[in-house]
User: Which sequence fits this backbone?
């Protein structure tokens, strides 16, 4: 007997990651992606695993809509050896050895949060924490660099990762409950036969189908007798 193979789509995680500049940054992204796969997720990054034929924002929106959570990987993109912030103002201050990440991390984190996805920010240690890269209603974890496979061991990554996964599970459970309640409140008069049947529990479904078969059999018998009577 041939065994049936079922293909189950893994829950997607939107991953915000800029193009890596160094081998250490690439290893960092790959390690996060593997962590996600090991946890049963499928990492999705526009420009890395998915590509846009037109405007990238449309593909980003589509990817976020398909995802259950967001992982923001913030790595150094710009290095300022020395500079000035708020130049010419009363709050002017000197900058020294400042690391900035790609602005897309901020944009995509905001989009994911507005969509209600649980957000987890992991960042190269030393990158400036500002805006959505600061802890607020999401988790932010700096990772020591240069990155090695032992970096996760030296920080509380696993505990924070588990907390983030728990948030995702809670969000999905809430969505399922809301959908079930909406189905239960639906007016049967506005529902198709398929929708009505799909909303029934297994026992209710079999009872309904059994009643329908009895009615059909009765109608067939009555019709036969009337026909024979003619």
Assistant:
């Amino acid at each position: 007997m041939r065994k049936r193979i079922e293909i189950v789509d893994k829950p997607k995680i939107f991953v915000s990651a800029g193009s890596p500049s160094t081998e250490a940054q690439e290893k960092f992204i790959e390690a996060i992606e593997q962590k996600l796969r090991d946890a049963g997720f499928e990492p999705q990054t526009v420009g890395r695993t998915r590509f846009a034929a037109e405007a990238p924002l449309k593909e980003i929106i589509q990817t976020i809509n398909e995802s259950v959570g967001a992982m923001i990987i913030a790595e150094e993109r710009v290095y300022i050896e020395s500079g000035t912030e708020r130049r010419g103002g009363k709050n002017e201050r000197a900058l020294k050895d400042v690391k900035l990440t790609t602005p897309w991390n901020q944009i995509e984190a905001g989009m994911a949060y507005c969509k209600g996805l649980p957000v987890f920010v992991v960042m190269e240690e030393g990158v400036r924490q500002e805006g959505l890269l600061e802890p607020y209603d999401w988790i932010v974890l700096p990772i020591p660099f240069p990155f090695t496979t032992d970096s996760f061991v030296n920080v509380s990554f696993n505990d924070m990762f588990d907390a983030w996964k728990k948030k995702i599970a809670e969000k999905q459970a809430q969505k399922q409950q809301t959908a079930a309640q909406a189905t239960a409140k639906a007016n049967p008069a506005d529902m198709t036969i398929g929708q009505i049947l799909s909303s029934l529990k297994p026992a209710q479904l079999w009872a309904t189908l059994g009643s329908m078969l009895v009615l059909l059999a009765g109608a067939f018998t009555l019709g036969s007798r009337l026909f024979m009577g003619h």
